[in-house]
Here is the input.
Amino acid sequence: MAAKKATAKAPAKRKPAIKDKYTKSAILAEIAENTELSKKQVSAVLDELSDLIERHVKKGGAGEFTLPGLLKIKTVKKPARKARKGVPNPFRPGELMDVAAKPASTRIKVLPLKGLKEFV
Here is the structure.
């Protein structure tokens, strides 16, 4: 077996878990500090990512966006539902109820990928 060559980069040491939820400005500050970019540059990257996701999932778009290794965002089309009368009420047995009609809609579904699942 050939010996592995040493890489120029030292292995990154594990960072501690974050106890409190970050605000948007805290996220920008943390990323800027760790990447040596300015907060303005990090903000521009996140804004562009948001715009890119919007263009993928909006009407006429691909309907799916993947952030490699982390998550997949996709649209799910829900068909219209007709109104129904005389349906058994699940909360009050023996009573009947009417269910209103619902128009067709498009929902967003976010699926975790392998990389995100491994964090937990």
User: Anything to note?
Assistant: The first helix runs from residue 24 to 35. The first strand starts at residue 64 and ends at 67. Residues 1-8 have pLDDT under 50 and may be disordered.
